[in-house]
Design goal:
Helices cover about 60% and strands about 15% of the residues. The radius of gyration is 37 Å and the shape is elongated. It is an alpha/beta fold and about 575 residues long. β6 and β7 form a beta hairpin.
Length: about 575
């Protein structure tokens, strides 16, 4: 008997595979059955009022049948309504009147009915059912107080039966609550463990992704240092450049993810040419496409305005991520398509849908559910087969979300994939795109003098070598204090200062503040540009607050350096 009861509870009440509604409704069925048996036995033993007892039994039996039907066909919505109306609003006054009015069993039944309303009702119907039931309860107790002649006395057997049912109800409900809390804790623990595993796998993959290009850089540098063949040097340098670019991409993904985790990823609006942006992306990507003998087809809707306003860099980052994945996961000789379409315009804002389609390996429905999660890839084997950080899509989703848009994927395993996102951008000024890149050969800064404050020898060597072709005169300082002394001694000879941030003796912020406070001619107005590996928005804001005019991140991109020089020196 005990085993059967435990099996019954495990199957219909404490089964985590059942929905909460189903478990509560099953519980009501079981308790209702107990009440039905108790009423029947109470009638036989005490020979209670036939009519009222029969009515009570019919009501309970009808409720149980309705609940069984709702569970059988998974229509728990109707089961909830049946329970609330029959058990709470019909059976309560009926049982109240035939069970002696106010007593311990009715108090337990009152608590049970109120719990059922709370558990099974949904806002705002909760307040409706609760209000109706309270009116019924108050009315019953008023009858008990002023109209005792309408109350059928409680027989002895029913009194004990009610107490037993009350204890049974309380025990089952306590068990259900404990089981529910335990299941919740187990689910939260499982989520935490899954997140920990995902981050552990992510860190392991990051170690591989960073060490691989570092190994190539160090190895190629060692080969160059031990070889005298100039032609071999050029090939090896190209390999170093490729590995360095990959390493920088990994670092950028990690930094972007860190910003997202800290909720510090922000957009910077600027005027830009949409087609020019697409051309720039495809120009970079075409080398990878040709290397795999793939075909890249680009179709830009002519209705899209030439000039738009938005975060060009982040928008390009999303498209680049999608194209990179398409190229990576499409076999040699496959096809890749990039289309952008104007889907609407309202009050100067243009809704643009961009789609990247490929004939690659595709993904399953289960994998799609994890595509845009941080620190996860569609398949754990993906990183081993194709490489990558697994952050690109998570970062892309965050960027699209910040732009007020949406991103989604459609795919079948082995049938290729289609990634689509929609964003809304303002129309740009007629002046078009601000200058954000340049070519060294196009600039001649003869007669201009700059100061480079940088404490790392190789960094000073890199920037001075890259700028030699511009004919600009360059001085260097190894820390902020030396930079301040050179500015004060120069008497206004510097036309611009590139300022590192983390330096000994005096950092870049302190040096900038000291220069701005100096009485030396031109010190308050000379353009000071941060040139630093501190690249978060907080770092940029702090540099500007310290009195700097602009910010350039490391590793140095010569086009950005030249554009900055052109902005302030021409």
């Amino acid at each position: 008997m005990r085993k059967s009861y435990n099996d019954l509870m495990s199957k219909y009440i404490y089964n985590d595979n059942l929905s909460f509604d189903a478990r509560v409704l099953n519980l009501v069925c079981i308790v209702g059955t107990f009440a039905l048996l108790a009423s029947a036995i109470g009638h036989i033993v005490e020979q209670s009022n036939w009519l009222m007892m029969l009515l009570k039994i019919v009501m309970i039996l009808g409720a149980i049948i309705l609940l069984y039907i709702s569970n059988r066909f998974n229509v728990h919505k109707y089961g909830r309504i049946a329970v609330i109306i029959l058990f709470c609003d019909v059976l309560f006054p009926l049982v109240f009147l035939v069970n002696g009015g106010s007593n311990g069993g009715m108090a337990a039944y009152f608590v049970l009915t109120m719990i059922l309303i709370v558990l099974l009702s949904k806002v705002p119907t909760l307040f409706i059912f609760m209000g109706i039931h309270i009116v019924i309860v108050v009315s019953c107790y008023m009858i008990d107080r002023y109209y005792q002649q309408y109350i059928i006395p409680l027989n002895t057997f029913q009194h004990y039966a009610d107490n037993i049912i009350s204890i049974t109800v309380a025990g089952i409900f306590i068990g259900l609550v404990v089981k529910g809390i335990n299941s919740l804790l187990l689910r939260e623990q499982a989520k935490a463990e899954a997140a920990s595993r995902a981050k552990g796998e992510f860190l392991s993959q990051m170690s591989h992704e960073m060490r691989t290009p570092l190994n190539a850089i160090i190895g190629m540098a060692s080969i160059i240092s031990n070889s005298n063949d100039i032609e071999d040097h050029m090939t090896d340098v190209k390999k170093i450049e490729t590995a360095s670019t990959h390493l920088l991409g990994v670092i950028n993904d990690i930094l972007d993810m860190s910003k997202i985790e800290a909720n510090k990823l922000e957009l910077v609006d600027m005027n830009f040419g949409f087609r020019k942006m697409i051309d720039g992306i495809t120009t970079v990507m075409i080398y990878s496409v040709e290397d795999k003998k793939q075909e890249l087809m680009v179709d830009i809707d002519p209705a899209i305005p030439e000039n738009l306003k938005g975060d060009r860099q982040r928008l390009a980052q999303v498209i680049t991520n999608l194209l990179s994945n398409a190229i990576k996961f499409t076999p040699d000789g496959g096809q890749i398509g990039l289309t952008s379409q104007l889907i609407g315009e309202n009050d100067g804002k243009y809704s643009i849908r961009t789609n990247v389609l490929d004939t690659g390996i595709g993904i399953t429905d289960e994998q799609k559910s994890r595509l845009f999660r941080s620190f996860e890839q569609a398949d754990n084997s993906t990183s081993r087969r194709f490489g990558g950080t697994g952050l690109g899509l998570a970062i892309s989703k965050k960027i699209v979300d910040l732009m007020g848009g949406d991103i989604w994927a459609e795919s079948e395993l082995g049938q290729g994939s289609s990634f689509t996102f929609e964003v809304s951008l303002e129309g740009g000024d007629e002046a078009g795109e601000t200058q954000d890149n340049a070519e060294a050969a196009a600039f001649d800064f003869t007669g201009k003098t700059i100061l480079i404050a940088e404490d790392i020898d190789i960094n000073r060597e890199i920037i001075t070598t890259l700028l030699e072709a511009t004919n600009i005169t360059m001085d260097t300082a190894e820390n902020g204090e030396e930079a301040l002394k050179k500015v004060e001694a120069g008497g206004g000879k510097y036309d611009l200062i590139f300022m590192d941030i983390q330096m000994p003796e005096m950092d870049g912020y302190e040096a900038t503040a000291a220069i701005r406070a100096s009485e030396t001619a031109g010190a308050k107005d000379v353009p000071i540009i941060a040139m630093t590996a501190n690249v978060f928005k907080d770092d940029i804001d702090r540099a500007l607050a310290a009195g700097m005019n602009g910010h350039l991140g490391k590793p140095i991109v010569i086009d950005d350096v030249l554009a900055m020089l052109a902005k302030y020196l021409t």
